[in-house]
């Protein structure tokens, strides 16, 4: 058992993620979920928010999570195991906000995500990814409400922060903090990241480990 008061979380995260990180399975429905034997941290966000790139950056891999240029392509829960033996899992949730998807696809997504969030006993934290170039959109606020209702706390992660000017980024951070205060399950600290430049990745990696094992 890790003593949360004595550990260097960034150093421990570097050590753990430099070891085994393997894809486990894809679950198109709840019956395909792996046994709830270890803690899990889930990643969610709008389609093309940079979720796959962030997962790759956190794990230090180039293609542990495949990026797609087709919004709404991933419609399954993808599980990755970290550590040997497995210390915890990362869960790549299907992206939301795809405007051209059939109604049935959207309904299936909503059902899968809602039931997973509400019923997964080993789910320790969600990471909600927001594109820093756009800030919180109505579909993001809707997802935040769903996360509030699931009663599992979540961290807000701004992605692609290198793509906008510093003044614009500061304004987005401020408006995101205002929105976060409206949501009961939102963590108060906003993580600002760039997968391409490595901005904020080490801090977020440490936060993921602390949420999973702390």
Describe this structure in words.
The protein is an alpha/beta fold and 214 residues long. Helix content is 36%, strand content 21%. It has one domain (9-213): Rossmann fold (3-Layer(aba) Sandwich). The chain has helices at residues 9-17, 51-59, 103-119, 138-150, 166-180, 201-213, and strands at 21-27, 40-45, 77-82, 88-92, 123-131, 154-159, 186-192. A 7-stranded mixed β-sheet has the order 1-3-4-2-5-6-7, sandwiched between helices. Strand 6 (154-159), helix 5 and strand 7 (186-192) form a beta-alpha-beta unit.
Question: Gist?
Answer:
The protein has 214 residues and is of the alpha/beta class. 36% of the residues lie in helices and 21% in strands.
Outline the fold blueprint.
Blueprint: H1 9-17, E1 21-27, E2 40-45, H2 51-59, E3 77-82, E4 88-92, H3 103-119, E5 123-131, H4 138-150, E6 154-159, H5 166-180, E7 186-192, H6 201-213
Helix pairs in contact: 1-6, 2-6, 3-4
Please, what is the CATH homologous superfamily?
A: P-loop containing nucleotide triphosphate hydrolases
How far do the termini sit from each other? 9 Å
What fraction of the residues are assigned to beta strands by DSSP?
A: 15-25%
Text of the CATH class:
Alpha Beta
How many helices in DSSP terms?
Answer: 6
Q: What class do helices, strands and sheet pairing give?
A: alpha/beta
């Amino acid at each position: 058992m890790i003593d949360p008061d004595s550990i260097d979380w960034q150093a421990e995260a570097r050590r753990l993620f430099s070891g085994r990180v393997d894809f486990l399975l894809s679950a198109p429905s709840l019956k395909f979920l792996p046994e709830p034997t270890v803690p899990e941290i889930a990643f969610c966000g709008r389609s093309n928010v940079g979720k796959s790139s962030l997962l790759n950056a956190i794990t230090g891999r180039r293609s542990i999570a495949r990026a797609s240029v087709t919004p709404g392509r991933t419609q399954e829960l993808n599980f990755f195991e970290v550590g040997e033996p497995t210390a915890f899992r990362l869960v790549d949730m299907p992206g939301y906000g795809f405007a051209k998807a059939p109604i049935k696809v959207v309904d299936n997504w909503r059902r899968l995500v809602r039931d997973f969030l509400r019923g997964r006993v080993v789910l320790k934290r969600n990471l909600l990814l927001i594109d820093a170039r756009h800030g919180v959109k109505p579909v993001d606020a809707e997802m935040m409400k769903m996360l509030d209702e699931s009663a599992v706390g979540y961290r807000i992660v701004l992605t692609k922060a290198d793509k906008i000017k510093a003044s614009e980024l500061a304004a987005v951070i401020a408006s995101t903090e205002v929105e976060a205060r409206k949501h009961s399950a939102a963590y108060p600290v906003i993580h600002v990241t760039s997968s391409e430049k490595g901005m904020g990745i080490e801090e977020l990696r440490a936060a993921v480990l602390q949420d999973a094992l702390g």
